Amino acid sequence: MYHSSNPSPDSTDIRPARRGKHKIFIGMAPGVGKTYRMLEEGDQLRQEGIDVVIGLLETHNRQETAQRAAGLELLPRQQVNCSGSLLSEMDTEAIVVREPQLVLIDELAHTNVPGSQREKRYQDVEVVLAAGIDVYSTVNIQHLESLNDLVARITGVVVRERIPDRLLEEADQVVVIDVTPETLEERLKVGKIYALEKADQSLQNFFQRRNLIALRELALREVADNIEEEALEQASNGTKTDAPFCSIHERVLVCVSTYPNAIQLIRRGARIAGYMHAPFYCLFVDDPDRFLTKTESLHIETCEQLCKEFGGEFIRVGEQDKAKAIADVAINYYVTQIVIGESQRSRWQLMLRGSLTHKLLKSLKNIDVHIIATEKRT
């Protein structure tokens, strides 16, 4: 990950051979330990001989954080004149001139004071990365642009400082610093996050347990989404890996037919997908050697409409071998759960032709198959 910081004597005007790598430490809320972890990893690399500096550190008077920074070189901030007052910001140009191998930059979503060369700290980070310097940075999940409205609904707080989603997508590594809501509450109560006099107020507002649980889920899911999208992209590009692609999120596929129980299957599959917060698909395998009656065609149209009402995607394929068609769709859509109805065939037919369920279980690995019994109506 690291490169030489000693250019040749005549290379001062040559652009860096590569862009710096960016590692982001993300958490559900202030106080989870993002900055501490960043400093810890930075100091360990320093001890291994890597040239590491702190470009910007916000301790918020947290003693443990300040102590963890000891031993690391801290670059001075620059002074910015704002309406007659001198305020300090990170000195991006000084970092580029200093040319460390790695720079630690706290609070990625920070808005710079008016009069700064760039409006946002993440823009400063992009300048540092473009200079070929690696960056470790920190951010909380509520600062992600696409989650702004959702976070406001969850917490009642409108977050003003935001970063584009692309920063997480473009990062070389994103690490979730995860603690339980109970641990975070305990840290707050003993004054490890804010001054003790602010603890009770914080626990009644942003740090309510229901808020923390929801924000924690957002942080974990966001990073899981990024990991899965990267794996999907590699799979679609034909990138070879040592292990088969494993879906992080559940995906539910309901297999419908011309039998009346298809409606029941769709409803059951939609419930399963809802419990799992999973994408939902319905599949009808159309035998090209058999024409559907008008009643059967209307039934399949009803299935498609119901699928879409539940927010699912309806898939229709022409194939004689039903088991093969289902398996192909399951693999192509990275399905993890398949819902099918119990066989309508007689025992004699099953003995002659074999069970669809048996064929599916034989051809698919790591996919759960749910066999739904037909409702008995009196």
From TrEMBL:
Keywords: Kinase, Transferase, Two-component regulatory system. Residues 18-227 form the Signal transduction histidine kinase osmosensitive K+ channel sensor N-terminal domain. GO terms for molecular function: kinase activity. The keyword Ribosomal protein does not apply. It holds the Pfam family KdpD. InterPro entries: Histidine_kinase_KdpD, P-loop_NTPase, Rossmann-like_a/b/a_fold, Sig_transdc_His_kinase_KdpD_N. SUPFAM superfamilies: Adenine nucleotide alpha hydrolases-like (SSF52402). The keyword Kinase applies. It comes from the Bacteria. This is Sensor histidine kinase KdpD. It comes from Stenomitos frigidus AS-A4. The lineage of its organism: Bacteria, Bacillati, Cyanobacteriota, Cyanophyceae, Leptolyngbyales.
